């Protein structure tokens, strides 16, 4: 166990003494709590710790001390997501994801193309002749250049490759027709246009054209009358042909990552659609005709330039997932309350100033994303959404929640109130945290944690209070026995209570950037502690028991 103290290593108890000239690798500061926005500082997760059992304490010139404890065995975890309604897709929160996980069709080899022109290259100022190697029965290619000649442009293969690619597509279409294929995949085929022979594939049910260079689709696409899934995401489409309205059976339309300035009129006539993906375009408006798509269960308009949603959205009574995040929406229409099947409503990163009271009708909501808006209040009627498991209002202008709101949300698992204007805990008493596993109150103006506020929080494992104005901790801190992570960094705490020893499940303790002069010796009894951050305090020494 090594302790670096003023560039010397001091020995006491089981600590070794030795001089060390090299600089200690700095440990990340706790002043920046974990946040949801891109580019913000994130707290080091326990799973990112090294697998050795070293314990390092480094003191800065300002006499700050930091410590890191590593677990004896590494941890690993994984996560995967899927897009509802589309087999093999990635989660909606994942950008640049392909529609399906099919392998791309390899481009044709240049060696499969016969040589039709003479190649030229410079060797030196003298005349030179060189021959290329043979590949199969291909003739030799002779490169000739005479002194004084202007270097001719080499024969380009781009046009030949394009022609060859077109021929290959035609062959694939013909083969698909002959075999009666139900699914056709031209993913990553470097296509700039689709041949009109596509009209012959009337038996198709699924067609995948994503990650090409398509700027338009041929009218003949309307001949695929049995088509149910069409993926043309990650192209350069700015419009769609009107013949698309012939696809009466189309259920899934993926138009993500294109160049659409508006939702093409033909889309509003595809009344069988259940999944419509339009995120990452340039769409500014959504027409009232959206009300025609009454079979939609998923609608993604994320990452566009939309300022408002029409009242017609209320006609989508089968809608389960609505994602309009990362736009410029100021108000949600009251008709949103008609979408009673909604389980996920994402409107984060907009300019919302209010939430309609009709949200009380969305009793099936399990996730409501409201972070990064301009809300100064949330309606009391939100208490009707009793199935909510996640409530996130990070980075708004909230100073309080309606009394009893959190107590009503009896299935709440994650509560994020960070980066707001709270000066105290939400009104409602201990009952409001009975089911909560994680509370994030970082970057507010809270001066104290009320005594007994977590007396019924038997499931609470993570508490983040970084960057508030805490001057003391409640006397019942020893009852928070299920806490695994406790972040109290960047406050004004002068001391840590002795009974912190009762937090026997604690693995992460961050108390950096406070006014601490000493640590209680009982902190050494936290046997599961893996991360201890102490930098930017006034500590002069560490208790022997900390080892």
UniProtKB/TrEMBL annotation:
| Protein's name in the database | Protein Sur-8 homolog
Disease resistance R13L4/SHOC-2-like LRR domain mapped to chain residues: 288-465
Q: Which Gene Ontology terms of cellular component type are present?
A: cytoplasm
Q: Where is this region: Disordered?
A: 21-163
| Origin: domain of life | Eukaryota
Which PROSITE patterns would you find in this protein's record?
LRR
| Native source species | Sarcoptes scabiei (Itch mite)
Keywords (alphabetical) are:
Leucine-rich repeat, Repeat
Q: Which family does it belong to?
A: Belongs to the SHOC2 family.
């Amino acid at each position: 166990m090594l302790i670096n103290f003023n560039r010397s290593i001091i020995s006491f108890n089981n600590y070794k003494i030795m001089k060390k000239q090299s600089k200690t690798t700095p440990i990340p500061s706790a002043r920046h709590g974990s946040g949801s926005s891109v580019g913000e500082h994130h707290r080091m997760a326990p799973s990112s710790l090294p697998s050795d059992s070293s314990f390092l304490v480094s003191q800065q010139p300002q006499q700050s001390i930091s410590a890191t404890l590593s677990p004896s065995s590494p941890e690993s975890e994984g996560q995967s997501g899927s897009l509802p309604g589309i087999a093999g897709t990635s989660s909606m929160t994942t950008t640049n994801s392909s529609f399906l996980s099919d392998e791309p069709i390899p481009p044709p080899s240049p060696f499969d193309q016969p040589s039709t022109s003479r190649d030229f290259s410079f060797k030196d100022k003298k005349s030179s002749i060189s021959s290329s190697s043979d590949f199969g029965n291909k003739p030799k290619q002779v490169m000739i250049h005479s002194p004084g000649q202007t270097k001719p442009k080499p024969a380009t293969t781009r046009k030949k490759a394009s022609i060859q690619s077109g021929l290959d597509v035609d062959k694939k279409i013909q083969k698909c027709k002959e075999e009666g294929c139900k699914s056709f995949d031209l993913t990553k085929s470097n296509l700039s246009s689709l041949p009109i022979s596509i009209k012959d594939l009337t038996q198709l049910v699924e067609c995948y054209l994503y990650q090409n260079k398509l700027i338009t689709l041929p009218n003949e696409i309307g001949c695929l009358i049995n088509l149910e899934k069409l993926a043309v995401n990650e192209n350069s489409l700015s419009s769609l042909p009107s013949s698309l309205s012939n696809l009466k059976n189309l259920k899934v339309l993926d138009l993500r990552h294109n160049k659409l300035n508006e939702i093409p009129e033909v889309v509003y006539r595809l009344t069988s659609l259940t999944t419509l993906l339009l995120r990452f375009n340039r769409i500014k408006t959504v027409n009232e005709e959206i009300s025609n798509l009454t079979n939609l269960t998923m609608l993604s308009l994320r990452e566009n330039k939309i300022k408002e949603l029409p009242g017609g959205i209320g006609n989508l009574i089968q809608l389960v997932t609505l994602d309009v995040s990362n736009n410029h929406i100021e108000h949600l229409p009251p008709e949103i309350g008609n979408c009673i099947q909604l389980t996920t409503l994402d409107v984060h990163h907009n300019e919302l100033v209010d939430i309609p009271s009709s949200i009380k009708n969305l009793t099936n909501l399990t996730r409501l994303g409201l972070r990064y808006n301009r809300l100064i209040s949330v309606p009391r009627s939100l208490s009707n959404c009793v199935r909510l498991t996640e409530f996130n209002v990070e980075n708004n202008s909230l100073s309080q929640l309606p009394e009893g709101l959190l107590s009503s949300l009896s299935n709440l698992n994650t509560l994020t109130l960070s980066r707001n204007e709270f000066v105290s805990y939400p009104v409602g008493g201990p009952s409001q945290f009975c089911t909560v596993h994680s509370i994030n109150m970082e970057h507010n103006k809270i001066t104290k944690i009320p005594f007994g506020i977590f007396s019924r929080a038997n499931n609470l494992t993570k508490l983040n209070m970084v960057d508030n104005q805490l001057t003391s901790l409640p006397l019942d801190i020893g009852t928070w026995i299920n806490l695994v992570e406790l972040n109290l960094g960047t406050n004004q705490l002068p001391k840590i209570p002795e009974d912190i020893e009762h937090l026997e499940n604690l693995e992460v303790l961050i108390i950096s950037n406070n006014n601490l002069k000493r640590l209680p010796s009982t902190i050494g009894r936290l046997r599961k502690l893996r991360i201890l951050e102490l930098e930017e305090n006034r500590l002069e020494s560490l208790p022997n028991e900390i080892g």
